[in-house]
């Protein structure tokens, strides 16, 4: 029973139409930054800030934050309290805020400081004042009214400096009364002061009256003065006379005066309302009493824009009076609905910007006036809850320039913002989503919800009734079947309803509001029943076919048999081509221009033509999202397909925005789309549906917003629910329709909306932009910049941050900002809702900071705020600094030019000296070359005579002297030639590991005879007898020969010359010290320069001047150093430091390493290690194609050195004596042999002899390395048939080069020999080889003759094998293979093929045989294989070769 009672209660609920004004209420309290909850006054200043006076200071609000101003003990003016009273604004934007303790406080907005205006005067007069009121006039004058008859007139600009203040009082006789009612400024800017004893005018006018007028107003050029005792007077500007006007209406007291219209005074009295028409001087009294309102006492009067007069009386409520008629009504809040507070609210009445009238009646709630129903209706904060009445206690209120109403409540502030009434909300079913609409042929609106109700509305919007299960439209609320998701009316006016789970319903008209109901459901046993019971879309195409989209059953076509029985065609019967894999969940069906039906599914878009005879003929095309293709469908889940009046089709997809079809061909799987999403300005990517209004604007529905799309310029205008409608609902997937009143009907989760597109407009409000803060170097500035026209920044203030705000109080979080600094940048910086602009290290100069914003609706407005900025330069950025820079630049340039010129002169001088030195050196070099031949002709005969002829002792002595001086002269010329080589960087270092002590002793021995003759103590000092190091022996000898020669040259008889050797770890120091004449200090610096001599010190022993210079050069190319210590008269010491390690020369490109037979002290590999290595390096022609070299050397270190040097490019085989070498040559058949001569067991020459006598290996080139360097030894080696004879020590580079040359010559010989062999069938090796080529030995010649003879015999033998060839020549297969390849460079197989192809060429040239005959004659068993081999060798096929031959002959 309880459930039944609830159901009956739900059914009795009628549709609730919500039509209260659209507004937004926001509360501010101390938690939001307000200084204190008790607000005593509020105003909006000239810039747009909202100011609030509280019990704890003054608060300024910019739409985002509150900024509170209070006095402190440090301020110049000490106030007893921060509790402020009613505030007002001066002409200059300052705020008058009298304090609770009666001080005249003026807040200077420029300095943000409080000023006690009367303090200087009080100090002077020693009189304290208690301020009761401050009245500010538009002309910039404020009247400060104090107790005890003191009144001060203050200039609002001068009073901040303590000036421009005048006392007005009765005792100063410039004021008539001691009690001031009001001060008024007329149009001539004269000031009227109404007192209890008459009127005082400050200005040009004069009035002589002592009547205590309390009210004053101006109409045109007349001033009207009213007293509460019922007196009315008129002052005319022309006559300058005051005239009393009699009021003929009975009354005792006038309570208020209001100007109605432009020329009517409304006098509120204790006996009704009196209207005085000033042009015709007539009065009309209106009794405001009604049957529900007994009071005739008028407290306040207001006239709205529709000329209604609203009157507040002493009774509850408010009275509306229509002038010109007797119509009046008393409107009030029912007592049971009144929200009561601890005190009475201030009376409130105003019209908002949308034209709605708002009233807070006496003893009532805040309400709006419904002009249609002529009722006061409360404002509900929750439209779903009738008890959520908004009616705060109102202390004060004000309206800002944007139309917002600000209410000072019991605690805090309420702001009410108003919006146009652009929609009407129908709450049909609580928490039930509206899912489908239909505008039928009678212009009625059908609405279906998930709550299973179907409502039908008349064209005017009134509810006609509900659809009952029997098909009748009834007034009582009745449930239909399961939630209807699709409604369609066909051309026969049948209504089709698609439900979720309950199947398809057909409503056939049977009369007015009566239909017969037919249900179609899926029947598993009937293949022609509908495919599924959940139906999301129903559509009738241009051929009147009805298509049903099932969510789970795919597409259905409804057709009727001959007996009119409906059947459903789908993929389970005749619709065979339907894509069941991805088309079973259908959301929407429509028809595009050209007769193309489009089906939106959850997995893509399907298209097909409506031009078909049989369902089996239908061909479907699928389009879906293609990753990476921006012109494919945005997403696959399609919710709606819409074609506008321009015949443009749009596809609306879930989370994919909208996709406009830009392809002309829709029957394709490559349809191209243009996609729009949030990045293009759309409110949301989660789009649900689309429709078009009467102005051809497209409206896109998303979950919480509407977007108006202009197809012309492709722009979006978005309307969000949060800022536009203030209703808590979401839009549903119901497809929108246009009702009979041209409104867009949209489904929501609580009912539906009817939107008037004409009224959907963005706000045009242009918010002013103000500067709210300023930071320098990261710290807040001590002064505001909003009032500045130009901001001047010092050089130390170049890091700045500007804070700003657009004063739009409706929804400031939606405001977007942009700024730029002209002079530094031209493009705008769009910063969303960020309200600051920062610049770092601004250059000096003039700038314009520009800031612009949108309003709270996101519309960019023309509100650019500009601030000029002047960044002062540092001294270094001024013109004086630039002048200084220019002067310094000129001086610097002059200095550089002078230095360059000086360097040029020095370089020219050095070049001249260098050229002179080169001339000297070239001269000496040429002379040296010329003298070498005469010296040779002198030296050789002298040596021959000394060695072979018998001579007398005197003659032998003389000839010995000749030979010694000849050798000395030759040595000097060699020095000059060496110096020339060093100068041209052509001096090579031939370094080898040498024992330095014996070599040094050898050099010293050359001077023993001179030492004896001069009786010089000549000796060597060395702690060791042997020191090995890597040096060039020749240059080492020259270094110390020169040093010792100089020592003996400049050392007197009887002195000493010592050579001291001091070895270190990696270097060695060798000192040559003498006790000679020494060297002057000034000479030491140039001692090693070229042509520098000490000829002045020893004129009897002249010098060439290049000896020490040559020594220094040779030491340095050894990577060593030389230094000298000398004292005149004591002697000199030359110290040479040389490296010992081989690593010092490894990166030197001029160094070359030499290795000889001498045994090294370094450890070498053992015989076993060498044998193991040799075994591993045996040549194998089957595994490598590189050349093989046999090294035969008995010295293990030299053998290892050669192997390491050559193994990078060749396969190296080693042997330790001639016998091993001979056997290795026979076994491995190397490409080249390198051999020593003097070896145990069998020497090198004997091994060479055996090799050349061996028919198998006689062709191998041989290089001899030997320490035997005599001519006879060289001749003996060449007689044995070797290819080169290299003496030790030898150059590794020379050896490698010689190997490459021999192998290259060998290759050339092979090619030449092969060419000679194939010249004719009897080809032989000719003897006309060039002298530079190595000669073919007779054994090789005999071998090749045998090979060619056998080849001629076996030319047509296709079964010829390599083994038969080797057996005929009495060789093993391996030896034959290597022998043949080493002589002609071809393997036996390649050789046979080459000879046969050459013979084939000869036979083709003869022209006597065909190709098959030639193939068999040359040993090919298959003509095709013959043709393949022929093309491989000759590059063309036999037929192509013959054609070319015939063409050339013709």
TrEMBL record:
Main EC class the enzyme belongs to: transferase
InterPro entries per UniProt: CheY-like_superfamily, HATPase_C_sf, HATPase_dom, His_kinase_dom, HisK_dim/P_dom, HisK_dim/P_sf, Homeodomain-like_sf, HTH_AraC
Segments for region (Disordered): 1155-1179
Domain (Response regulatory) ranges: 1188-1303
Gene3D superfamilies in the record: 1.10.287.130, 3.40.50.2300, Histidine kinase-like ATPase, C-terminal domain, Homeodomain-like, Immunoglobulins, YVTN repeat-like/Quinoprotein amine dehydrogenase
Top-level division of the source organism's lineage: Bacteria
Domain Histidine kinase: 926-1142
Residues recorded as bearing 4-aspartylphosphate in the entry: 1236
Basic and acidic residues bias (residue ranges): 1168-1179
Keyword Protein biosynthesis appears in the UniProt entry: no
Domain HTH araC/xylS-type residue range list: 1345-1444
GO molecular function: ATP binding; DNA-binding transcription factor activity; phosphorelay sensor kinase activity; sequence-specific DNA binding
One Pfam entry name: HATPase_c
EC annotation from Swiss-Prot or TrEMBL: 2.7.13.3
Alphabetized UniProt keyword annotations: ATP-binding, DNA-binding, Kinase, Membrane, Nucleotide-binding, Phosphoprotein, Transcription, Transcription regulation, Transferase, Transmembrane, Transmembrane helix, Two-component regulatory system
Catalytic activity field: ATP + protein L-histidine = ADP + protein N-phospho-L-histidine
UniProt key word ATP-binding: yes
Transmembrane intervals: 879-904
Name this polypeptide is given: histidine kinase
């Amino acid at each position: 029973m309880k459930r039944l009672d609830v159901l009956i209660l739900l059914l009795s609920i009628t549709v609730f139409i919500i039509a209260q004004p659209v507004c937004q209420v926001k509360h501010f309290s101390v938690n939001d930054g307000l200084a204190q909850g008790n607000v005593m006054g509020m105003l909006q200043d000239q810039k747009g800030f909202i100011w609030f006076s509280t019990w704890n200071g003054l608060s300024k609000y910019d739409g985002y934050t509150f900024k509170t101003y209070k006095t402190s003990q440090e301020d110049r003016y000490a106030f007893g309290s921060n509790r402020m009273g009613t505030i007002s604004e001066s002409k200059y934007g300052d705020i008058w805020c009298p304090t609770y303790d009666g001080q005249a406080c003026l807040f200077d907005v420029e300095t943000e400081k409080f000023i006690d205006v009367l303090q200087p005067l009080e100090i002077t007069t020693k009189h304290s004042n208690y301020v009761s009121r401050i009245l500010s006039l538009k002309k910039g004058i404020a009247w400060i009214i104090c107790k005890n008859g003191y009144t001060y007139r203050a200039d609002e600009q001068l009073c901040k400096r303590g000036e421009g203040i005048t006392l007005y009082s009765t005792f100063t006789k410039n004021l008539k009364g001691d009690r001031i009612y009001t001060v008024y400024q007329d149009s001539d800017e004269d000031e009227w002061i109404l007192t209890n004893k008459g009127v005082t005018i400050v200005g040009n006018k004069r009035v002589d009256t002592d009547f205590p007028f309390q009210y004053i107003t101006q109409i045109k050029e007349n001033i009207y003065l009213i007293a509460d005792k019922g007196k009315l007077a008129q002052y005319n500007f022309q006559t300058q006379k005051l005239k009393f006007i009699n009021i003929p209406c009975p009354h005792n007291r006038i309570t208020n005066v209001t100007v109605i219209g432009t020329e009517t005074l409304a006098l509120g009295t204790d006996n009704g309302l009196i209207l005085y028409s000033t042009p015709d001087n007539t009065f009309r009294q209106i009794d405001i009493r009604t049957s529900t309102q007994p009071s005739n006492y008028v407290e306040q009067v207001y006239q709205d824009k529709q000329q209604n007069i609203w009157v507040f009386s002493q009774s509850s409520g408010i009275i509306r009076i229509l002038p010109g008629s007797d119509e009046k009504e008393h409107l009030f809040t029912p007592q049971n609905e009144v929200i009561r507070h601890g005190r009475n609210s201030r009376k409130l009445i105003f019209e908002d910007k949308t034209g709605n009238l708002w009233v807070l009646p006496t003893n009532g709630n805040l309400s709006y006036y419904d002009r249609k129903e002529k009722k006061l209706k409360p404002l509900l904060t929750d439209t779903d809850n009738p008890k959520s009445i908004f009616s705060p206690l109102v202390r004060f209120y004000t309206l800002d320039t944007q139309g917002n109403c600000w209410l000072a409540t019991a605690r805090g502030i309420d702001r009410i913002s108003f919006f146009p009434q652009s929609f009407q909300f129908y709450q049909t079913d609580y928490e039930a989503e509206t899912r489908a609409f239909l505008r039928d042929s009678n212009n009625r609106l059908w609405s279906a919800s998930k709550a299973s109700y179907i409502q039908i509305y008349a064209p005017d919007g009134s509810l006609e009734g509900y659809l009952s299960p029997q098909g009748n439209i009834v007034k009582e609320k009745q449930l239909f079947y399961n939630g209807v998701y699709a409604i369609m009316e066909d051309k026969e006016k049948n209504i089709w309803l698609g439900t979720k789970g309950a199947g398809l319903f057909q409503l056939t008209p049977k009369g007015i509001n009566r239909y017969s109901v037919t249900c179609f459901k899926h029947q598993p046993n009937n293949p022609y029943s509908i495919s599924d019971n959940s139906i999301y879309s129903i559509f009738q195409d241009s051929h009147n076919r009805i298509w049903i989209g099932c969510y789970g059953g795919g597409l259905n076509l409804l057709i009727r048999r001959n007996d009119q029985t409906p059947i459903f065609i789908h993929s389970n019967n005749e619709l065979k081509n339907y894509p069941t894999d991805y088309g079973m969940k259908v959301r929407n069906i429509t028809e595009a221009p050209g007769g193309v039906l489009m089906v939106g599914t959850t997995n893509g878009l399907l298209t097909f033509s409506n031009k078909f005879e049989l369902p089996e003929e239908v061909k479907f095309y699928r389009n879906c999202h293609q990753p990476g293709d921006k012109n494919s469908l945005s997403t696959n889940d399609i919710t709606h397909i819409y074609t506008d009046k321009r015949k443009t089709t749009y596809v609306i997809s879930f989370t994919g925005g909208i996709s406009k079809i830009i392809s002309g061909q829709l029957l394709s799987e490559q349809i191209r789309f243009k996609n729009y999403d949030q990045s293009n300005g759309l409110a949301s990517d989660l789009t649900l549906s689309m429709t078009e209004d009467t102005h051809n604007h497209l409206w896109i529905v998303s979950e919480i917003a509407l977007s108006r799309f202009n197809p012309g310029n492709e722009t979006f205008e978005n309307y969000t629910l949060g800022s536009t409608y203030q209703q808590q609902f979401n839009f549903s997937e119901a497809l929108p329709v246009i009702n009979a009143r041209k409104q867009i009907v949209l489904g929501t989760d609580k009912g539906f909306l009817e939107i008037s597109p004409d009224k959907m407009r963005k706000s045009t409000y242009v918010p002013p932009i103000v500067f709210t803060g300023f930071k320098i170097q990261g710290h807040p500035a001590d002064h505001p910049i909003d009032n500045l026209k130009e901001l001047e920044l010092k050089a130390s203030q170049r890091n700045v941050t500007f804070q700003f705000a657009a004063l739009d109080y409706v929804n400031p979080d939606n405001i977007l900002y942009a700024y730029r600094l002209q002079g530094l940048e031209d493009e705008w910086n769009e910063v969303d809702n960020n309200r600051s602009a920062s610049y770092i290290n601004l250059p000096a100069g003039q700038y314009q900071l520009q800031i612009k914003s949108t309003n709270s609706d996101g519309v960019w407005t023309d509100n650019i705020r500009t601030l000029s900025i002047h960044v002062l330069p540092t001294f270094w950025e001024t013109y004086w600094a630039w002048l200084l820079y220019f002067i310094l630049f000129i001086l610097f340039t002059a200095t550089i030019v002078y230095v360059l010129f000086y360097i040029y002169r020095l370089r020219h001088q050095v070049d001249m000296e260098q050229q002179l030195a080169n001339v000297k050196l070239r001269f000496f070099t040429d002379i040296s070359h010329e003298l070498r031949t005469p010296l040779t002709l002198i030296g050789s005969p002298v040596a021959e005579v000394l060695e072979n002829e018998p001579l007398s002792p005197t003659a032998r002595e003389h000839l010995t002297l000749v030979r010694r001086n000849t050798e000395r002269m030759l040595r000097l010329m060699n020095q000059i030639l060496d110096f020339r080589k060093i100068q041209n960087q052509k001096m090579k270092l031939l370094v080898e590991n040498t024992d330095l002590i014996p070599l040094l002793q050898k050099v010293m021995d050359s001077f023993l005879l001179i030492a004896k003759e001069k009786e010089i103590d000549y000796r060597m000092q060395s702690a060791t007898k042997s020191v090995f190091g890597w040096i060039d022996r020749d240059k080492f000898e020259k270094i110390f020969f020169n040093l010792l020669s100089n020592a003996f040259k400049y050392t007197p008889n009887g002195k000493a010359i010592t050579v001291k050797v001091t070895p270190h770890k990696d270097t060695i120091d060798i000192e040559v010290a003498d006790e000679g004449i020494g060297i002057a200090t000034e000479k030491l610096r140039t001692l090693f320069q070229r042509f520098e001599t000490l000829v002045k010190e020893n004129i009897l022993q002249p010098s060439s001047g290049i000896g020490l210079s040559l020594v220094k050069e040779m030491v340095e190319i050894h990577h060593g150093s030389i230094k000298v210590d000398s004292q005149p008269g004591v002697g000199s010491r030359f110290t040479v430091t040389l490296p010992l390690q081989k690593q010092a020369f490894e990166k030197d490109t001029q160094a070359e390493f030499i290795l000889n037979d001498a045994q090294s002290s370094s450890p070498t590999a053992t015989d076993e290690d060498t044998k193991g290595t040799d075994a591993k390096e045996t040549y194998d022609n089957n595994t490598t194609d590189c050349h093989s070299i046999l090294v035969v050397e008995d010295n293990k270190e030299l053998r290892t050195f050669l192997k390491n040097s050559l193994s990078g490019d060749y396969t190296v085989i080693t042997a330790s004596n001639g016998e091993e070498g001979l056997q290795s040559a026979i076994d491995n058949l190397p490409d080249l042999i390198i051999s020593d001569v003097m070896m145990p067991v069998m020497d090198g020459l004997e091994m060479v002899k055996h090799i050349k006598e061996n028919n198998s290996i006689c062709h191998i080139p041989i290089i001899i390395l030997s320490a035997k360097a005599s001519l006879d030894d060289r001749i003996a080696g060449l007689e044995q048939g070797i290819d080169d004879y290299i003496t030790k020590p030898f150059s590794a580079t020379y050896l490698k080069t010689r190997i490459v040359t021999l192998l290259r010559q060998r290759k050339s010989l092979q090619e030449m020999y092969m060419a000679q062999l194939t010249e004719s069938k009897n080809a032989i090796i000719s003897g006309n080889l060039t002298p530079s080529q190595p000669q073919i030995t007779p054994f090789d010649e005999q071998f090749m003759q045998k090979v060619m003879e056998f080849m001629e015999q076996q030319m047509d033998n296709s079964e010829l094998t390599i083994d038969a060839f080797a057996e005929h020549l009495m060789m093993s297969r391996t030896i034959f293979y290597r022998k043949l390849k080493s002589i002609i460079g071809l393997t036996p197989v390649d050789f046979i093929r080459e000879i046969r192809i050459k013979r084939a060429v000869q036979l083709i040239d003869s022209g006597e045989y065909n190709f098959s005959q030639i193939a068999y004659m040359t040993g090919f068993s298959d003509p095709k294989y013959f043709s393949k081999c022929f093309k491989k060798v000759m590059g063309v096929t036999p037929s192509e070769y013959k054609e070319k031959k015939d063409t050339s002959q013709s």
